[in-house]
Specification:
Its main location: cytoplasm. Its EC number is 6.3.4.4. About 30% of the residues lie in helices and about 20% in strands. The protein has twelve helices and 20 strands. A hairpin with a 2-residue loop joins strand 16 and strand 17. Helix 3 packs across helix 4. The longest helix is centred in the middle third of the chain and has 15 residues. The two termini are about 30 Å apart. It binds inosinic acid. The site of inosinic acid has 20 residues, from helix 4.
């Protein structure tokens, strides 16, 4: 039986997973998503055509690959249907788990209202209803994709949920739809999605029994994990590799190679601790050169230096075998580059990530910069200082860098 290879973000998301999944997926028969929702997003260009993906796995761009949205994902039918409209002939190569939970309009409205009420304590969510949808799942008050097949019953159940939460929804200013309005909407979702709703666990297990090659595409990043990230400034799912097991129905023994996607510097969108953030001109340069604006919300990402302490922590949590080092070219032209190798915490020097990052101060090591690596495709052609930077990342984290990305182009990639 084959094992499934996994791609996981090592920082706060936006590490450049899209390029690597797109590049590697041609070697796989199935590409699967296990968690998150339409808060995730990446843009992929193929032959001059732009595709925006939020829920559908990137394997969709290759016609022979089967793509699965697993049970751990929260699915917004409206967003999904719009995304599906970019593609033709999805039948037979795209499936949505009937166990995945629904993320409906009221979830987004609750998310946005709660964020507004939090004021300067807001998490800075994407406003896509992710937290409320997962909260319903965990409270056992959620509804699953399979229920879309009976829109009459689902609309009745939802109306009864709304009635029992009327005071709460009114206080948040969330408008309750009429039963008829809801029924019409759910019926249209059924019509569009029915051919794709399936028991994806069985599809995946059969594929494994047939020795098909499977790639698991992580969403968001490790430091946004609900259990291991910078709580409460996190997303509401398990973004680490273990989440791929629960989110797809795989045993831990089914996971093969784990590739950590690591950006050569750090970014974070939304609020929460970020020890190595650079609020000066270096951070601005990273933002402008790296085009660090969110694909889902357009927000400007906060930027800063590589945090090897956080990266080491994230790599161990995920069981990372090797890194794909992304956007190394964004650091071109810096006179020197910094890596955080330890933290000062409560008067002590520590080399691990504590549960609260608010009180840590980064301790940096400074390395000489390089002129340009943009577009280089052979490791030997890299300038010496870029090689030293890579080597230092490997020494500080204990993980080998096996892929280096030197521009957004698919082919500007070094394989070691
Ligand atoms: P939520 O997932 O919309 O609830 O947002 C919670 C936190 O996760 C916020 O800081 C978001 O900016 C962040 N977040 C969610 N999805 C992504 C992503 O795909 N990339 C980067 N950050 C994300």
């Amino acid at each position: 039986m084959t094992k499934a290879d996994l791609i996981v973000g090592i920082q706060w998301g936006d590490e450049g997973k899209g390029k690597i999944v797109d590049m590697l997926s041609q070697n796989y028969d199935l590409v699967c998503r296990s968690g998150g929702g339409h808060n995730a997003g990446h843009t992929i260009w193929v032959n001059g055509v732009k595709y925006a993906l939020h829920l559908i796995p990137s394997g969709i761009l290759h016609p022979n690959i089967i793509n699965i949205i697993g049970n751990g994902v929260v699915v917004n039918p409206e967003a999904l249907i719009e995304e599906m409209s970019q593609f033709e002939n999805l039948q037979g190569r795209f499936y949505i788990s009937d166990r995945a939970h629904l993320n409906l309009t009221h979830h987004s409205l609750i998310d946005q209202a709660k964020e507004r009420l939090k004021g300067d304590k807001a998490i800075g969510t994407t406003g896509k209803g992710i937290g409320p949808a997962y909260a319903d799942k965990i409270s056992r008050t959620g509804h699953r994709v399979g229920e879309l097949l009976n829109p009459k019953e689902l609309s009745e159940n939802l109306i009864s949920d709304f009635e029992s939460n009327r005071a709460y929804l009114d206080a948040l200013g969330v408008k309750i739809p009429s039963k008829d309005e809801l029924y019409q909407k759910l019926s249209s979702f059924k019509e569009a999605l029915e051919p794709y709703i399936a028991d994806t666990t069985q599809i995946l297990w059969s594929a494994m029994d047939e020795n098909k090659k499977i790639l698991l595409e992580g969403a968001q990043g490790t430091l946004l994990d609900i259990d291991h990230g910078t709580y409460p400034y996190v997303t509401s799912s398990n973004t680490i590799s273990a989440g791929a097991c629960t989110g797809l129905g795989l045993s831990p023994k089914s996971i093969g190679n784990v590739i950590g996607i690591l950006k050569a510097y750090t970014t974070r969108v939304g609020n929460g601790a970020f020890p190595t953030q650079d609020s000066g001109k270096d951070g601005d340069t990273m933002c402008e050169v790296g085009k660090e604006y969110g694909t889902t919300t357009g927000r400007r990402r906060r930027c800063g230096w590589l945090d090897a302490v956080a990266v080491r922590y994230a790599s161990r949590l995920n069981g990372v075998d090797s890194y794909a080092l992304m956007k190394l070219d964004v650091l071109d032209g810096f006179k020197s580059v910094k890596i955080c190798k330890a933290y000062k915490y409560k008067g002590e020097i520590i080399d691990y990530m504590p549960s609260n990052l608010d009180e840590v101060t980064p301790i940096y090591e400074e390395l000489d910069g390089w002129d340009s690596i943009s577009g280089i495709r052979n490791y030997d052609d890299l300038p010496q200082n870029a090689k030293i930077y890579i080597k230092r990342i490997e020494e500080l984290t204990g993980v080998r860098v096996s892929i280096i990305s030197t521009s957004p182009e698919r082919s500007d990639t070094i394989l070691r």
